Amino acid sequence: MVQALPKSRLAPGDLIRTAIVGIRMRKLRSALSSLGIVIGVAAMVGILGLAESSKSELLAQLDRLGTNLLIVESGTGFGLGTGALPTEATGMIARIGPVESTSMISFVGGGVYTNDRIPEGRTGGISIQAVDTGLLDVLAGSVADGVWLGDAKASYRTVVLGSVAARRLGVREVTGTQPIWLGGRWFTVIGVLNTFELSPDLDRSALIGHAAAATFLDHENLPTRVLARVDPARVDQVVTVLAATANPEFPEEVEVDKPTDALEAKEAANDTLTALFLGLGAVALLVGSVGVANVMVISVLERRGEIGLRRALGATQRQVAAQFLGEALLLGLIGGIGGVLLGVGTTVVFANVKGWDPLIPPFALLGGLGVSLVASGVAGLYPAVKAAHLSPTEALRTT
Amino acid sequence: MSGPLNAQTILAVADAHKEYPSTPPVHALRGVSFNVNKGELMAVVGPSGCGKSTLLHLMGTLDRPSSGDVIVAGHRVSALSDSELSSLRAHHIGFVFQQFHLLGGLSAIDNVADGLLYTGRPRNERRELAELELRRIGMGHRLDQIATKLSGGERQRVATARAVVGKPSIILADEPTGSLDTKNSEAMVELITEVHAGGSTIVVITHNRDIAERFPRIIEMRDGRIERDSAGRLSL
After folding, report:
1. Mind listing the pLDDT tens digit for each residue in A284-330?
2. Which pLDDT score, from 0 to 100, does residue B3 have?
3. Sheet holding B93-96, edge to edge
4. Residue A292 falls within a domain, yes or no?
5. Which of A239, A259, A279 is the last residue of a domain?
6. Under an 8 A CB cutoff, do B73 and A9 touch?
7. Contact list, A5 vs chain B (CB under 8 Å)
8. Is the pTM of this model over 0.80?
């Protein structure tokens, strides 16, 4: 009586061990073929991480700055003489229900110089703006050095410089006594501001109080710009009525701006770039998986003897295919882990340089591993099937 | 059908023909029949091109005859699927090759243990049996040596241990002395004799008549046919 034939069996652990041996015997080549996957996955994880980090940074910035600031300006449109809003505009805007606070800026002509000997033309692009004391709060600005225009100081000949203006005037340190030649009078610098994220043009300005402008420079204090903080839920409604409120006579000459829109637009542009780089990462990964396929095809050609031996030892076609597929997957796994680590590392380093919180979406980590396994699996499929279908006698004939 | 199939018959080749499709077609085997009984030690000898390698492949179920049949341990090759033939090799057939076919990155013991890789036995057991086998054939001092660092003679001993370790029904050795010098060839023949004395059934394929003469039974081949079978159990 013939005994029943037990099946050829290869335990999962043995399969993995066999695949590891296959890779260990060709360390350099395996490392190089994994490198392609590493680069592709690192690029994708890094891009996703940086995009996420910068987005969270922007959200934090928007949160800090508030998206409820509206800026009303007199347009520079045709037939507009003064470039100013009506005197009562500030009060009218303040009376709109959802408007929480306002600040008025009035452009003062004239230049700002380090002393009175400098020719008038060399203004350094610095303008004089008369402002109220509430400006700093409404614009979410902050003082870098010295003090802001307090209620009392706003009526003296004191000036606070924007960050760019201070640099151009050579003010590095606020001593409280440094004079500058402003609008034909001497003013004392009492403070320097940090950059205004919501109104960068004010960085190039010298800011004085309305009272000081009126008293010392004979300025009329017509509003050129009114800033309004609005109930965040009703920003859109306020936008629709602002122009008519600010200048009922010529509402078409009024420009209303929401400065955080620019930041959001920047982020939208970043999203497009992210998609582009993600695509490049995918191309790198594709090239990487072609590398894996290449190495596996060569491996099958080189290891015909081994394939023949394994068939002789009782391996089925399926087990031979599984071994080579396993090797490809292992290369992909190594590449995927390497790529995720490199991508995370890049994100952390870059975010730190930028001063952001490094943030990597979890799906990027799992996705990076998953994508590299899929890519290497697909790459390994053909060589594995080729190895499996090699005739044992032919495989053994070649050494 | 050749000689009677009885309980003693481990392997039977029955009127096996093998043609390779080419132009003109190559007739590697032209009707070969013989039985191998349990515990036999025999040589198949003949000049190159006589069909002895093809015969080994058929006996080893690595290939199928164009017509006729091969029966190994009671299993008809013609009735088995490819994966069933793999199982048959895993459990019933041990191979020794001229080029040894050791896995270069593995130690002697792991190479021998791989002889049992596809039998489904756990790794510990495979390694234990491998160690036992290596010690038995006098390779106990080289257990952990990487295969590439072994001498030719040592490699063929390791390869022999790998063929024997699963206690297969039959061991097929394809030119086992073909890559060895005279001294190592002599040692190899002795090793084969020893293994046979331990109860194994062995068929050695060789082109070397001197080597063949050392074995109790000789089948001489020429042009795809058996010219002489010293056992007298003649083919058709």
Report:
1. 888 888 988 998 999 999 999 999 999 999 999 999 999 999 999 99
2. 47
3. B93-96, B170-174, B202-206, B41-45, B217-222, B225-229
4. yes
5. A259
6. no
7. 75, 80, 84, 87-88, 91
8. no
